[in-house]
Amino acid sequence: MLKIQATVCFTRGIVIGPAYVVPEKIKEKPVVNSSHIIDQSVEKARFERAVEEVSQDLEKLALEHDVFAAHLAIVQDPTLSEEVEAHIEAGKTAEASVDETIEGLKLVFQMMDNAYMRERADDIEDIGNRLMAALQQKSLRRFPGLSVPSVIVARDLFPSDTANLDASLVLGFITAEGGVSSHVAIMAKNRGIPALIGVPEIVSSVQTGDLIAFDAETGEICIHPDEAVKADFFERAKALKEKEGALLARASEPVISRDGKTLRVYCNIGSLEELNASMAYSPDGVGLFRSEFLFMDSDHFPTEEEQFIAYREASEKIGKEITIRTLDIGGDKELNYFSFDHEENPFLGWRAIRMTLDMPDLFCTQLRAILRASAYGPMRIMFPMITSLYEFERAKALTEACKASLKDEGTAFDDHIPLGIMVETPAAVFMADELAKAVDFFSIGTNDLTQYILAVDRGNEKIKHMFNAFHPAVIRAIARVIEAAHEADIEVGMCGEMAGDLRATEILLGLGLDEFSMSAQMTPDVKEKIRSLDVSKAAEKAMKVLAMSDVDEIEAYLSLNSGSDTIID
Ligand code: PEP
Ligand code: MG
Predict the structure, then answer these.
(1) For atom 5 of ligand 1, which residue has the closest CA?
(2) What is the residue range of 169's domain?
(3) pTM surpassing 0.85?
(4) For residue 381, how far is its CA from the centre of ligand 2 (angstroms)?
(5) How many domains is the chain partitioned into structurally?
(6) 81: Cβ–Cβ under 8 A, 6 or more apart, which residues?
(7) Is 495 a catalytic residue?
(8) 254: domain CATH number?
(9) Closest residue by CA, ligand 1 atom 6
(10) Cα gap 283→514, rounded to integer Å
(11) Pocket flag, ligand 1, residue 130 (CB < 6 Å)
């Protein structure tokens, strides 16, 4: 029996079954055809045919996954063809030309500072594999012999692998490489597939057919589990299934605390696909639609019409309130069709509302799209990274101008659409009382708020132990924001990760939070937790926590006080 501990956990599920190790691609390096003079026109025609064939496949796949629309755009990008053709003109075969072009492009992505963009190198490799398979008339099938439900083990998985995989044959997957923001990780989360990524030793430790058990939530992996471990995993899997089933059965019931306060438990999404997957959990609405993913999965700034269709579809699909956050790009997120200047401190730089206020045409395109979609269902607009009343007022003025133009055109929209802000900067915390008088709602973004209050980069591995939303400074900031909101008679939600952390539920309830928004998978748990709690008792505990000055003390207190009292009756 061999035990391995994974450190990156981002899904939930307990899996036990045979491993299927994806055969390593032995890359046949295409060489320049030196035995005879190549016919450039033949090679160019072969390449064009390959592009056509791959485009047809990607068009079909794009109907289900946005990522393939981005792949399609790259395949059809004239700069890609121009570069491949230049290599052919230099005397190389179509295969060698594609290979060199793809390798060069991959390198560009791999050298980028930003983790999200570095992970796009996988997408480029995926596209290269497709083109190569089309050129060589080979099948892209990467899973020969996979016929029974298995734990897929691979060095890395590409987006097309996860799209092509027959879901009924996948119990879960473990990869040696990849980061949490890779498309593969995002797809695993969306589809609710238990997965562990970044486990370097996995490929050398397991062979196809070996029995493997893993817990995606704790990161425990066991290869050749003995009878006792097997029994333990089966027991845990059964208990988790029963718990999830019971929670799901009650997910659509109202969320009312024991002493009668009604709360909203919303979900966070980044795309329509994510919304589709979220629907199974019956969220009460969408508390955060990270609209930047529409922009990141495109090869151009999405037009008003493209955005309008996406927002309207989301609204019609869920039939409940949707909160669209305006473009929050910059910081750790970039666009491959727009170049940002190099910045020493991108998280403190030109991102989110700062960028959109500087680009009013871009901003108004999005605002008009949201306003138009608001005619089809309840919608809210939320501005990110606000640090002053002035920024909100400028954003509001642009919204009003868009409303006026829509009115002139006779286009329908909700004239009372609520305008709110993310409270995610220390400045917004200190200005919360004045901001609360101007806006319609607050949503606390604990991911950024924690990074800015504690001066801890949220993406820096070296200091990740210091990134903790339970730090007393963050808790006190949250308390201050909720109090300011309620004094001004507006509601306050939370859409940072803390909202989905069950250890935090009771104190957030006690501090007076009105709305919790998180990844959909967590919503049934948080709903049930709230139903088991008393707001008045929670308020007493929140007061105790507010008096604590040490993060360890707070975490120890909350661990003792959470979890055990989730009652399903
Ligand atoms: C946050 O900062 O808490 C938040 C929800 O926004 P994002 O994670 O997209 O920055
Ligand atoms: Mg944020």
Answers:
(1) 496
(2) 2-25+143-230
(3) no
(4) 15
(5) 3
(6) 47, 48, 51
(7) yes
(8) 3.20.20.60
(9) 445
(10) 15
(11) no
Which tens digits make up the pLDDT trace of 162-192? 666 777 888 999 998 866 656 567 667 666 7
What pLDDT does 35 receive? 47
How would you class 332 by CB atoms within 10 Å of its CB: exposed for 0-12, middle for 13-18, buried for 19 or more?
middle
162 and 257 share a domain? no
Q: Which phi and psi (to 5°) does residue 381 adopt?
A: -110, 135
Sequence-ordered list of residues with C-beta below 8 angstroms from that of 167, at least 6 positions apart, any chain: 191, 193
| Ligand 1 pocket member 445 (CB < 6 A) | yes
Among residues 267, 364, 402, 495, the one annotated as catalytic is 495
Last residue of a domain, one of 171, 200, 230: 230
> With a 6 A CB cut-off, is 125 part of the ligand 1 pocket?
no
User: Where is pLDDT greater, at 432 or 240?
Assistant: 432
- Altogether, the residues listed in the chain come to a count of 569
Asked if 183 is an active-site residue, the reply is yes
Atom of ligand 1 nearest to the CA of 290: 9
The CA–CA distances, whole Å, from 27 to 99, 119, 152, 284, 399 equal: 10, 20, 21, 48, 53
Q: Which residue has the higher pLDDT, 378 or 24?
A: 378
Closest ligand, as measured to the CA of 288: 1
Express each pLDDT in 25-58 by its tens digit: 644 455 545 445 677 888 888 888 889 888 988 8
Q: Give the domain CATH number at 208.
A: 3.50.30.10
> pLDDT, tens digit, for every residue of 396-454?
999 999 999 999 999 999 999 999 999 999 999 999 999 999 999 999 999 999 999 99
**How far from chain centre, in Å, is Cα 346?**
20
